[in-house]
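Hey, resending since the last one bounced:
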Amino acid sequence: MAGELTLSPVMQDALVILGSAGIVIPVFARFRITPIIGFILIGVAVGPFGLGALVNEAPWLEYVTISDPERLAPFADFGIILLLFAIGLELSFNRLWQMRKLVFGLGSLELLIIGSISAAFFGQYSGMDTTAALALGFALAFSSTAIVLPISGTKSPVGRAALSMLLFEDIMIVPIIFILGALAPNAAAEGVDGLTDTLVLGGLVILALLVLGRFALPSLFSQAARTKSPELFLAATMLVVIGASLATSATGLSPIVGALIAGLLIAETEYHGEVETIMEPFKGLALGVFLITIGMTVNLVEIWTNVWEILAAVIGLLAFKAVITGTLLKMMGARRSTAAETGVLMASPSETSLIVLAAATSALVIDAETAQFWQIVTAVGLTITPLLAKLGRVIARRIEATPELPDEDEYDARNIIIGGGRVGRLIADMLCEHDQPYVILDSNPDLIIDAKRAGYRATFGDAARGDALTKLGIEAAPSVVLTMDEPVLAQRLVAKLRRDHPELLIVSRARDTDHAAQLYRAGASHAVPETLESSLQLSEAVLVDIGVAMGPVIASIHEKRDEFREKLEIDGGLKEPPKLRTSAVES
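The structure tokens again:
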């Protein structure tokens, strides 16, 4: 019929997801609750075990529910890929190398001990055969990368410990699934050979990615940056992420390995801050889709039918993993508060647990009924992970009143110079002369490349867009200096900086006195008109060289500067005369 609205299933699902995000994020932010819980609850409500089960009775519910979670699976997988890519951006190879003992020491011990003890328990008390017990034990030993890291971060002591264990778990996903296939009742002898081939081919692909990325990525992003097109920059980033993920996936390795490597490679370039800013909203939305799919696996009827068994399994699993993880961390020298908080946070099972359970079921290693029970336990554990994080922080504060601080570099207080041209470099030279830390930020890749070659600390980014300044630590910065010769942009930046950071020292280059008045009205602490200062310096040079005494010359220049202060006060409508120079300079 003419005018009838027909939505494809994909469009209906997109409408539900975007509508959910529009409701969950602001509502939960208002009550200072992580939106992770909200997305999972939305999945429970609109999924096939929630309102989706009533579509036959109320057909209109089809437009606000998702009856087939499998359609969302590719989007959820992509969310995990983007998450691992973002983790790689934060790490860099240097930091990963520094964490090698934690990754292969703590990470391996945590997975092996929890998996082995769990397998022994299931084999002894549940009557499972050895293969099934191993499959279930190691499936439940995993913890959720997608949920834990956004909560813990990667720079705090808790974040570093969690990251090291999660990285090792991600590395071990493929070998564990291959071993399950090899141990299956109907497995052929080529299972082990397939694992060997995968590891060899995967190693070669990873080596190729490392070599190619080192040489090709700086040039690729440099060309994208020169266009000043965020769309092209985003396209280049997605090309790298998807290409690396497909390369590792083609060899049988997990695509998240390729995504992590792509992030590590870009982290070594000066464009990592801009890439992280551009990808942030996509990562958050994709993660929301993944969490909704987790919620859809929660069958409330099944939980109610077996509520006591599921409750006992959840509590037992969480307590066991928390004790083992916390004990290992304490034995490796972590503070008691850090060990306790990390242990509780890492206690819940993982989305990877669902993957391993599905693989074990398809290989006939675990029967379907057992797998379904532990899938429900896993979904419940994932749902309450944010609550575990809060519980861990409470326990940590009870154990030790003084929390362990993050790495010092997270609080690295350095002056931020916006603009890497001649003026910006001169300011950097003067800061270095007086042992003051700094970093130069510019959206011109050629200026950044030249500055880095000349030995300046410089990075690529657009100060006017996204949270590039936040990534550089503006919260702890002693000052921000604007040196660009773009009057309108400088005025907008000053207004934004003053609005977001009322106490920040903001020093800006001004084209003339009129522009300086505008900058002061926008909130600049100091605005230096280049025409005025150059005129005063020229006057000083002339007067001294023609024989006028230095003292009267300096006095007259100060008087002239005071006159311009009064003029700027009148023109700018300011309550008090602005400073054209800092008191340190004038004295």
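Residues 187-191, 405-411, 580-587 have pLDDT under 50 and may be disordered.

Sorry for the duplicate.
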